[in-house]
Specification:
Residues 14-26 have a biased composition (Basic and acidic residues). Residues 27-40 have a biased composition (Basic residues). This protein is mostly helical and 124 residues long. It has one domain (19-108). Helix content is 88%, strand content 0%. The longest helix has 109 residues, at 2-110. The protein is rod-shaped, with a radius of gyration of 51 Å.
Length: 124
Protein backbone atom coordinates (compact mmCIF):
# COMPACT_ATOMS: atom_id res chain seq x y z
CA UNK A 1 0.00 0.00 0.00
CA UNK A 2 2.76 2.41 0.86
CA UNK A 3 4.23 2.05 -2.60
CA UNK A 4 0.81 2.72 -4.16
CA UNK A 5 0.26 5.85 -2.10
CA UNK A 6 3.76 6.99 -2.91
CA UNK A 7 3.10 6.44 -6.64
CA UNK A 8 -0.21 8.29 -6.38
CA UNK A 9 1.51 11.11 -4.52
CA UNK A 10 4.20 11.36 -7.25
CA UNK A 11 1.49 11.34 -9.91
CA UNK A 12 -0.39 14.16 -8.15
CA UNK A 13 2.82 16.16 -7.84
CA UNK A 14 3.58 15.60 -11.53
CA UNK A 15 0.05 16.76 -12.44
CA UNK A 16 0.49 19.82 -10.22
CA UNK A 17 3.82 20.67 -11.87
CA UNK A 18 2.26 20.18 -15.32
CA UNK A 19 -0.62 22.53 -14.43
CA UNK A 20 1.88 25.13 -13.16
CA UNK A 21 3.87 24.84 -16.36
CA UNK A 22 0.72 25.20 -18.45
CA UNK A 23 -0.34 28.30 -16.51
CA UNK A 24 3.13 29.75 -16.82
CA UNK A 25 3.11 29.04 -20.56
CA UNK A 26 -0.29 30.70 -20.86
CA UNK A 27 1.08 33.72 -19.01
CA UNK A 28 4.05 33.94 -21.37
CA UNK A 29 1.83 33.37 -24.37
CA UNK A 30 -0.47 36.16 -23.22
CA UNK A 31 2.54 38.36 -22.51
CA UNK A 32 4.11 37.78 -25.92
CA UNK A 33 1.67 40.00 -27.87
CA UNK A 34 2.13 42.68 -25.23
CA UNK A 35 5.87 42.31 -25.54
CA UNK A 36 5.68 42.54 -29.33
CA UNK A 37 3.49 45.61 -28.93
CA UNK A 38 6.03 47.18 -26.56
CA UNK A 39 8.83 46.34 -28.99
CA UNK A 40 6.88 47.92 -31.88
CA UNK A 41 6.16 50.99 -29.78
CA UNK A 42 9.81 51.28 -28.74
CA UNK A 43 10.88 50.93 -32.38
CA UNK A 44 8.43 53.67 -33.44
CA UNK A 45 9.67 55.93 -30.63
CA UNK A 46 13.28 55.28 -31.63
CA UNK A 47 12.50 56.10 -35.28
CA UNK A 48 10.70 59.29 -34.25
CA UNK A 49 13.61 60.29 -32.04
CA UNK A 50 16.08 59.57 -34.85
CA UNK A 51 14.00 61.69 -37.24
CA UNK A 52 13.92 64.57 -34.77
CA UNK A 53 17.69 64.32 -34.28
CA UNK A 54 18.23 64.18 -38.04
CA UNK A 55 16.04 67.26 -38.56
CA UNK A 56 17.83 69.18 -35.79
CA UNK A 57 21.26 68.33 -37.22
CA UNK A 58 20.04 69.23 -40.73
CA UNK A 59 18.87 72.66 -39.48
CA UNK A 60 22.23 73.21 -37.77
CA UNK A 61 24.04 72.24 -40.97
CA UNK A 62 21.86 74.55 -43.09
CA UNK A 63 22.58 77.42 -40.68
CA UNK A 64 26.33 76.83 -40.80
CA UNK A 65 26.19 76.41 -44.57
CA UNK A 66 24.33 79.71 -45.03
CA UNK A 67 26.85 81.48 -42.77
CA UNK A 68 29.74 80.02 -44.75
CA UNK A 69 28.17 80.84 -48.11
CA UNK A 70 27.30 84.31 -46.87
CA UNK A 71 30.89 84.93 -45.85
CA UNK A 72 32.09 83.51 -49.18
CA UNK A 73 29.84 85.85 -51.14
CA UNK A 74 31.02 88.81 -49.06
CA UNK A 75 34.63 87.74 -49.68
CA UNK A 76 33.95 87.55 -53.42
CA UNK A 77 32.39 91.03 -53.36
CA UNK A 78 35.36 92.36 -51.38
CA UNK A 79 37.84 90.82 -53.85
CA UNK A 80 35.90 92.29 -56.77
CA UNK A 81 35.92 95.73 -55.14
CA UNK A 82 39.68 95.48 -54.60
CA UNK A 83 40.15 94.51 -58.25
CA UNK A 84 38.08 97.48 -59.41
CA UNK A 85 40.10 99.83 -57.18
CA UNK A 86 43.35 98.39 -58.51
CA UNK A 87 42.16 98.76 -62.13
CA UNK A 88 41.13 102.36 -61.46
CA UNK A 89 44.53 103.10 -59.92
CA UNK A 90 46.39 101.55 -62.86
CA UNK A 91 44.21 103.42 -65.36
CA UNK A 92 44.95 106.70 -63.57
CA UNK A 93 48.67 105.94 -63.47
CA UNK A 94 48.61 105.15 -67.18
CA UNK A 95 46.86 108.43 -67.92
CA UNK A 96 49.46 110.40 -65.95
CA UNK A 97 52.58 108.65 -67.24
CA UNK A 98 51.69 107.53 -70.78
CA UNK A 99 52.87 110.69 -72.48
CA UNK A 100 56.18 110.85 -70.59
CA UNK A 101 56.92 107.18 -71.28
CA UNK A 102 56.13 107.55 -75.00
CA UNK A 103 58.34 110.66 -75.26
CA UNK A 104 61.22 108.88 -73.56
CA UNK A 105 60.81 105.79 -75.74
CA UNK A 106 60.67 107.81 -78.96
CA UNK A 107 63.63 109.91 -77.84
CA UNK A 108 65.73 106.80 -77.26
CA UNK A 109 64.70 105.16 -80.53
CA UNK A 110 65.04 108.25 -82.68
CA UNK A 111 68.33 109.55 -81.21
CA UNK A 112 70.81 107.91 -83.54
CA UNK A 113 74.46 108.18 -82.54
CA UNK A 114 76.71 106.46 -85.08
CA UNK A 115 79.57 104.62 -83.33
CA UNK A 116 81.92 101.89 -84.26
CA UNK A 117 81.25 98.66 -82.51
CA UNK A 118 83.82 97.49 -79.95
CA UNK A 119 84.51 94.22 -81.80
CA UNK A 120 85.02 95.87 -85.17
CA UNK A 121 88.50 95.35 -86.69
CA UNK A 122 89.55 97.46 -89.54
CA UNK A 123 91.04 95.47 -92.39
CA UNK A 124 93.62 97.58 -94.16
Amino acid sequence: MASQSQGIHQLLQAEKRAKEKLEEAKKHKGAAPGKAKRIRQAKEEALAEADQYRLRRDREFRGKESKALGSQSSLAEEAEAQARASIAELTGSYGRCAEAVLARLLGTVCAVEPRVHLNFRASD
